[in-house]
Amino acid sequence: MPDKKLVKMYVSGDESALEVLINRHRDKIYSSVYFTVKDAALAEDIFQDTFVKVIDTLRSGRYREQDKFLPWVMRISYNLCIDHFRRNKRMPIITTGDGYDIFDVLGFQDKNIEDNLIADNTYSKVRSLVNNLPEEQRQVLILRHYSGMSFKEIAEMTGVSINTALGRMRYALINIRKMMAEKNISI
Fold first, then answer.
1. Domain extent for 136
2. Of 10, 38, 35, 34, which Cα lies nearest the Cα of 22?
3. What is the rounded distance in angstroms from the CA atom of residue 180 to the CA atom of residue 13?
4. Where are the alpha helices (DSSP H) in 39-186?
């Protein structure tokens, strides 16, 4: 059932329609928030605040984003993340710590200790390169490759045109290749 129909059902009083919407988009929204704030508990709080805003907007009849439910919700969650950092006067930093990372989902099959060491070294190198990208490029790369978002969704969430999102991704890849060449890194 399309999001548009579920929204109409919820506005008409069917509470289960909202549950379907939340379950449908939970992973994408939560991952986006998590990769912005880098803290699981904070990400959960922002995820919940996002849906409080969604419910308030839907119930008050102010929702006007026909056929754009997910990008609208993603934009709300992104704005809540920005609000959090503004309140705390700090900006998000992508770390190379032990936390869940974009590169944990690459699906390498580790066959022995040597392969594990090589994979760990590769992950570390790639994380380091990504951390050195400008914020806009890093954000598009993470949203595209980890969250699986389309460039249209990324553009709507970040408030730029699709061409700008595509350009940022292109420059991110060019910059990573350039850094790899400068540091003689082969992956």
1. 102-182
2. 10
3. 55
4. 40-60, 69-88, 113-131, 135-145, 151-158, 162-182
Q: Residue 44 — very low, low, confident or very high, per pLDDT cuts 50/70/90?
A: very high
From 41, 66, 88, give the residue that closes a domain: 88
Say how far apart CA 102 and CA 129 lie, in whole Å.
13
Amino acid at 89: K
The domain tally of the chain equals 2
Per-residue pLDDT of 136-187, as tens digits, reads 888 888 888 767 788 888 888 888 998 998 899 899 888 888 888 887 766 6
CA distance linking residue 24 with residue 152, whole number of Å: 19
Query: Is residue 173 located within the same domain as residue 141?
Result: yes
Report pLDDT digits (tens) over 8-18. Answer: 899 889 999 99
Residue 169's CB is within 10 A of a number of other CB atoms, namely 18
- What angle do helix axes 135-145 and 151-158 make, rounded to 10 degrees? 140
